[in-house]
């Protein structure tokens, strides 16, 4: 890890701890964000295919762009979202926002007041704390 990466990590952990998360929860949130980011990349497709979720059964498949075949693939999104919900349950004043575009951060923690009353979080999520 470079010095710059260590400083970034320290700043993120400090910010999460200031919101009331423990160091363990902060590390878990970083792993969840990383997992969701990779999942969103796979949903958009990578050089050899991508993941697809069957709308009726909810099962996940890998679609190969080389062969055109669909094969079963592990669902990494659902367990990550369950872990996120379990952590956020202990912090009722904070809300998570999962942003599905793989070009940016996957997880934001929204504080009270980050999203104006009556507005949708998807227009104001960048006011929250990006967990990267």
What does this structure look like?
This protein has helices at 3-18, 23-44, 77-89; strands at residues 49-53, 60-64, 70-72, 95-98, 107-110, 129-131. It has three helices and six strands, in the order ααβββαβββ. The protein has a three-stranded antiparallel sheet. A three-stranded antiparallel sheet has the order 4-5-6. The mean pLDDT is 95. The protein has one domain.
Put the structure in a nutshell.
This protein is an alpha+beta fold.
State the end-to-end distance: 15 Å
The overall strand count is 6
Determine Rg (CA atoms, Å): 17 Å
How do the strands of the widest beta sheet line up side by side? 1-2-3
The helix/strand order is: HHEEEHEEE
The tally of helices reads 3
Structural domain tally: 1
Low-confidence stretches: none
What percentage of residues falls in helices of 4 or more residues? 25-40%
Largest sheet features = 3 strands, antiparallel
How big a fraction of the residues is strand? 15-25%
Mean pLDDT: 95
Characterize the overall form: globular
């Amino acid at each position: 890890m470079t010095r710059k990466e260590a400083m970034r990590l320290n700043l993120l952990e400090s910010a999460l701890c200031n919101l009331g998360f423990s160091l363990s929860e902060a590390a878990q949130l970083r792993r969840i964000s990383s997992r969701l980011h990779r999942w969103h990349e796979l949903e958009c497709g990578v050089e050899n295919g991508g993941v697809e979720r069957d709308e009726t059964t909810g099962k996940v498949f890998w679609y190969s762009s080389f062969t055109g075949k669909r094969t079963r693939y592990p669902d990494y999104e659902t367990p990550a979202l369950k872990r996120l919900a379990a952590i956020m349950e202990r912090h009722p004043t904070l809300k998570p926002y999962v942003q599905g575009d793989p070009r940016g951060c996957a997880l934001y923690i929204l504080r009270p007041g980050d999203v104006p009353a009556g507005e949708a979080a998807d227009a104001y999520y960048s006011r929250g704390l990006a967990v990267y």
